[in-house]
Amino acid sequence: MELALASAIGLLTAAGIYLLLRARSFDVILGMTLLSYATNLLIFACGRVVAGKPPVLRAFAPTTLAHYTDPLPQALVLTAIVIAFAMTAVSIVLAIRSRADNGSDHVDGIEGERLQEARNQARLQKRKRRA
Amino acid sequence: MMAHLPLLPILIPLFAAGLALLAEHRRFGMAPQRAIAALSLLAQLVVAGLLLQRVSQGEILVYLLGDWPARLGISLMVDRLAALMVTVALLLGIACWIHACAGWDRRAPHFQAFFQIQLMGLNGAFLTGDLFNLFVFFEVLLIASYGLLLSGGRGGRLRAGFHYVSVNIAASTLFLMALGLLYGLLGSLNMAEMAARVATASAHDRLLVQAAASLLLLVFCTKAALLPLSLWLPETYARAPGSVAALFAVMTKVGLYAVLRVSTLLFGSAAGVLANFAGPALLVAGVATLALASLGVIASTRLRVLASYLVLASAATLFIAFSLGRPDTIGAGLFYLVHSTFAGAALFLIAHHVRRHRDGDTAVAGLSARGWTVAGVMFLVAAVSLAGLPPLSGFLGKLALLDATRDHAEIWLALLLSSFVVLIGLARAGTRVFWKQAPSASQVALASPVLPARRLEVVATVLLLGYGVAITVAAAPLFAYTQAAATQLAAPAQYLEHMRAQTPILRSP
After folding, report:
1. Which residue in A110, B56, B379, B393 is a FRET match for A130, CA 20 to 30 A apart?
2. Residue B198: which of B241, B190, B370 has the closest Cα?
C-alpha cells in the first residue's frame, strides 16, 4: 500500500514537472493539474495510511488514535482540491485569452516553426552580407 | 467588540468586496462602489490604529476562530510586526486606491471588489498564526492580484500574466507539499505550537523537518523574488497598470514577512540545532540578488522596468538584513521595509504619470511646462529616497542597516556598491526623461495634444511621497517601534505562552 502510494506520488510529480517545463500553455496547465494531484495524495498520506478507520468520533469506540484516522489532512486536501480546481479554471481562461490576443501560446511568443524560420532567414542574410 | 478586533481587518474588506460587487457599475455608476471602498478603507484605518495602540506595549493578541483552542483550531495572532505590516499595507492601499479612482477603476471591471479582496488577503496573511491558514490567505491575495493585473488588459500584459500565474501556482503546490510534510512530522500547523515541537524533534526527524522547512522557505523566496526565483518579477510589474504595480510593491514584502515569521518563530533561538539554519544561504542569495537588481537598474531602458528592479533591490536588501537573524539587523530591516514600500510604489506611480504624458522619445509632449516641473520634482524626491541619499528616509534606513552590520565587511561592500550603481541609474533616468532639450515648434505640433494631468493621480503620488517624508520626520519613534518588534521576534517562547494561555470562552475541549 505504502509503496503503491509513494510511487504514484512520485510518478505524478515527475510527469507534472516534465509537462510544466514545456513551451505550450496547454501542456503547462496539464502539468499543474498533475502536480496538484500529487500534492493532494502527499497531504493525504501525511496523516498516515490507515485502512478501515473512520475520521469522526463514534459512540462505541474509545477515543484513542488507535481507533481513528487523522481527520485534519482530509480537511486540508479538500481545501487544496477546491483551490487547485479554481486556479486551473483561471489559468485555462487566461491561456485561451492570451492565445487569442497574441496569436500564439508559445513561451517565446513565436510558434516554434516560425522561430526556426526566422533564425534561418537571419542566418541567410548574414551570409549574404558577408558575401 | 474590542475582543473581535484582530478579525476586523479581514472581515471589513470581505464585506466591502461583496457590496462592491452588488453595486454593479453599469447600473449605478461608479459613485456607490467608490463610496463603499472609501468607507471600508476608513474603517480599516481606525482598526489598524487601534491594533497598533494595543500591541505597542508588547502584548500579543490571540484570537481563536470559532472558539476552538489554538492547538485544534485556527488562531489569529497580532504582535508588533503584524500590526506594523497591516498598517503599511493599508496606507499604501489608500494611495493606490486614490490613484485608481482617477479613472482606472472605470476601465477595469470589478476593480473595486478585487482591490478589497487583495487587502483582505494581505491583512489575513499578516495576522494569521496558522501555517495552513497562511497558505489560504496567500491564495486569496494571489487570486485578487491576478484579477487586478489582468482585468482590462490585453496582449503583452496577458502573456506576462500567464507567466505570473504559472509561477505562482507552481509555488503554491510546493507550499502545500511542505505543509503536508511538516504536519506529518510535527502534528500541528499552529506556528507557535510547531516551534515547540521543532525544538524537541528527534535527531531522526530533524533532517526531514529541515528539508520540509527548506521547501517552505523556497516558496516564500519565490514570492519575495530571491535571485534564482526572481526572474518573473520585472516583466510582470512593468506590464501592470500604474496603481496595481504600486500596490504590488507590498506583495514581495508579504513573502519577506513570511520568511521572517518562519525563521524567527519556527527556527528562532529556541529551535536548538536548527536555529536560523537557512541564514547563510539566504545571505549569499540576497547579495547575488542585490547585484543583479543594481545591474538591472542600470540596464533598464524604461522607467517602469527600472522601478521593478528597484523593488527587487529593496527585497534583496531586506533578505540580507533578515538573514543574520539578530534583533538589531531585523529592526533596521523593518524600518527599511516601511520606507522602501512607499518609495518604490511612488516610483511606479511617477512612471505611469510620465508614460501617460510622453509620446515616444519627445519628452515634453502632452503636458504643460508646469506639469513637467511637478513630475520632475516628484521623481527627484522618490529618487533621492530610493538611492539612499540624505536627508530622506532611504538614507536613515541604510544608515541603520550599515550600523547594525558593522562587523560584516562583505555586506558593507554589497550595500554601498549597489547604492552607488542605483544612484547612477536613477540620475541617468532622471536626466534623460526630464532634462531633454525641448523639441522645436513643428515637433510639438505633430505630437499628441496636451492631456490634462489627472489631479487625483498627482495627489496619490504626493501622498506616497508624503509618507516617506513623515517617516523621515518621525524616524525616532518608528525606529524604536521596529526595534521593539525585532526584540519581540527574538523571544519566540512568549508566543507559545500567549497562544496556550488563550482558552476558549464557551467551549471545553
Report:
1. A110
2. B190
Helix, strand or coil for residue B359? strand
- For helices B203-224 and B279-299, give the axis angle rounded to 10 degrees: 10
Closest residue in A to B182 (Cα) is: A46
Q: Are B233 and B104 within 8 A, CB to CB?
A: no
Whether the pLDDT of residue B336 is over 90: the answer is yes
Number of domains in chain A: 1
Amino acid letter for position B392: L
* C-alpha torsion sign, points B481, B486, B490, B492: positive
Identify the domain containing residue A13 by its residue range: 2-130
Please list every residue in chain A whose beta carbon sits closer than 8 Å to the beta carbon of residue B184. Answer: 45-48
Q: Pick the residue of A29, A94, A102, A107 with the most B CBs within 10 A to test the interface with B by mutation.
A: A94
Residue B235 lies in a domain: yes
Q: Is B152 exposed, middle or buried (0-12, 13-18, 19+ CB in 10 A)?
A: middle
Report pTM: 0.90
Candidate from B158, B161, B183 with C-beta closest to A73 = B183
The residues near B394 (Cβ < 8 Å, ≥ 6 apart) are B339, B340, B343, B384, B385, B386, B387, B388
In a domain, B168, yes or no: yes
Residue A18 C-beta-side C-alpha neighbours within 13 Å:
6
The answer to whether the Cβ–Cβ distance between B158 and A42 falls below 8 Å is: no
Give the B window 140-169 contacts with A, CB below 8 Å: 143, 146, 150, 154-156, 158-159, 161-162, 165-166, 169
Confidence of residue B449 (pLDDT cuts 50, 70, 90): low
- Using an 8 Å CB-CB cutoff, list chain B residues near A2: none
Distance from CA of B218 to the nearest CA of A (A): 16
C-alpha cell at A32: 499543474
> Collapsing DSSP states into helix, strand and coil, what is residue A63?
coil
Q: Cell numbers at residue A44, please?
A: 493525504
Other Cβ atoms less than 10 A from the Cβ of B497: the count is 13
Would you say B383 and B432 are in contact if contact means Cβ atoms under 8 Å apart?
no
Taking alpha carbons only, the member of B136, B174, B142, B176 closest to residue B161 is B142
Give domain status of residue B509, yes or no.
Answer: no
Identify the domain containing residue B421 by its residue range: 8-436+452-498
**What's the pLDDT tens digit per position in A81-95?**
999 998 999 899 888
- Looking up residue A12, the CATH number of its domain turns out to be 1.10.287.3510
Question: What are the beta bridge partners of residue B63?
Answer: B76
Contact A77, A40 (CB under 8 A): yes
How many domains does chain B contain in total? 1
Measured CA to CA, the distance from residue B317 to residue B432 in angstroms comes to 27
| Shortest alpha-carbon distance between residue B73 and chain A (Å) | 10
